[in-house]
Amino acid sequence: MALVAERDSFDELMTCRLSAAPRRRSPCSIVIFGASGDLTARKLIPALYHLHKDKLLPDPTRILGVARREKTDESWREELFEALQTHSRTQPVDRGAWEAFAPKLAYCRGDLSDPATYRQLGARLGEASEEALRRNLLFYLAVPPSSFGLIVEQLHAAGLLHRDPPEPSWQRVVVEKPFGHDLASARKLNERLTRYIHERQILRIDHYLGKETVQNILMFRFSNAIFEELWSRGSLDHVQITVSEKQGIGNRGGYYEEAGALRDIVQNHLLQVLALVAMEPPVSLDPESIRDEKVKLLRSIRPIPPERVDEFVVRGQYFAGYVDGELSPGYRQEPRVRPDSNVETFVAMRLLIDNWRWSETPFYIRTGKRLPLSASEIRVQFRPAPNVLFAAACGGRLEPNALTLRLQPNEGISLHFNGKVPGTSMTVRPVRMHFSYNAAFGAYTPEAYERLLLDAIEGDPTLFIRRDELETAWRIVDAVREGWGDRPLTNREFYPAGAWGPAAADDLLARHGHTWRNPRPPEADK
Ligand code: NDP
């Protein structure tokens, strides 16, 4: 990606805009498989609507939806408009913008396994008067993962998807998660897809990477020399990354019984965030340079021997408890969950990275459902001050410095340090210097899917997962699964809904002299 820097002055500050040059936003047709599904209504259409509203979609763009349910173009548009009232990040929905957007939408009814569906789709794509709409194609697979391979095969058989479409046309496939359920199945799926298209045409989505604050990790690290100097085992004691969710599994019991927290969050979001926090500086901002460094980092994570899994990993499952004062059912009582399920709703891991920068610096990662609040954050804990002067006088109670990158909600960055409490006595107290995204930039935050869809249209793969990244991440979590085997959960692995995970998770850190630092509730920042 070639980058151009445009400098302009802004309120005495210099802002430096890096934009891809040239932006290749050629007219295209976007085909959404799974047009009647939850993801389409909640995320994809609202994102496309906002891209249209912000004049970021190529002109013209067509959006064709494919699913089994009986619908017409008109009834699909009406349903999506209805859903937009709830899911649009801007309210009220701009009627004028919607009316200009809606004619771009068309619906194709059909079963994914039926070749006639693809013939019909081909016919509808062929209706477009402009050639670019017939030859530039983005296929979005928002369907159950078992259909990913089938769709690519059928599109290829119908002559709609080619490995090398004639220049300057392009064809790409966005694949939703989960991509496989272990290394073997991910490899199999990769092999199936690359029989028909190049790896570079496959965009494996992890919507976490589209979040502003996640993108800011690299900018924060590599545009601020003061922190990067300290970013290594010499200055850092350990790092904690938390992705906590207050919600349970809702009506996704069937899916969750197959996935569990390890596959649902650790394999993708948590390991991706870890890679961004710990990777080496890339040689350039080129997508492959960034992805090369992420893979190198994932490969340097010390393998967890399955027979020693309990030394490094804790799992948990919630039982009934109170969240925000309301009684929540236990996981085993949730709909479509087996009453004796051993599926983990919580995972905490201690990971070591065997490279020069991080040797023996623990990275603790954790995720869980029905925790006290929904938040994602990275806490970088510096080494404690030497045990002399104030630290000696405080008898080990002096807080070490820490930097918190809050990914959501209340996006921001805080530096924690110690200060003297004003007064005649010498009292030291931790204080917090806080940067808030909202305060600095206003509340405008595009949804992750907006950025990712635009990148997919432009063919920028930086924020999508490359095959080797994906397979390396699966190798890490497969070892954990193997270690757990079909061992039932023990008492110490259960936690009440509304707690920060099982007691075993605290022990995991306590063994190394550390404690979890829980994200602050949003009201603490008001
Ligand atoms: P839904 O179950 O809500 O929707 C599935 C869609 O696939 C429906 O439109 C359904 O159409 C279509 N479909 C299924 N089988 C066929 C078939 N044989 N022929 C034609 N169409 C078919 O799923 P979601 O929208 O929740 O998820 C879609 C994908 O996105 C999944 O891979 C999921 O893992 C992933 N994902 C979803 C997230 C979310 O928040 N929803 C978040 C992250 C990933 P119809 O019912 O009309 O047959």
Please give the count of helices.
Answer: 17
Bound molecules: NADPH dihydro-nicotinamide-adenine-dinucleotide phosphate
- Major beta-sheet overview: 9 strands, mixed
Which CATH first-tier class of the largest domain would you pick?
Answer: Alpha Beta
- In helices, the fraction of residues equals 25-40%
Proper CATH architecture of the largest domain: 2-Layer Sandwich
Characterise the protein shown here.
This protein is of the alpha/beta class and 526 residues long. It folds into two domains: 28-176, NAD(P)-binding Rossmann-like Domain (Rossmann fold), CATH 3.40.50.720; 209-381 and 438-525, Dihydrodipicolinate Reductase, domain 2, CATH 3.30.360.10. Helix content is 35%, strand content 22%. It has 17 helices and 19 strands. The protein has helices spanning 38-53, 73-87, 95-101, 115-126, 131-135, 148-157, 183-194, 212-223, 225-230, 253-278, 287-299, 309-312, 389-393, 437-441, 448-458, 467-484, 503-510; strands spanning 3-10, 13-20, 28-33, 61-67, 105-109, 137-141, 171-175, 202-204, 236-244, 313-319, 321-323, 326-328, 346-351, 363-368, 375-382, 402-408, 412-420, 428-436, 494-496. The strands form four sheets. A nine-stranded mixed β-sheet has the order 18-17-16-15-9-14-13-10-19, sandwiched between helices. A hairpin with a 2-residue loop joins strand 11 (321-323) and strand 12 (326-328). Helix 10 packs across helix 16. Mean pLDDT is 94; it is low at 1-5. NADPH dihydro-nicotinamide-adenine-dinucleotide phosphate (NDP) binds next to helix 1.
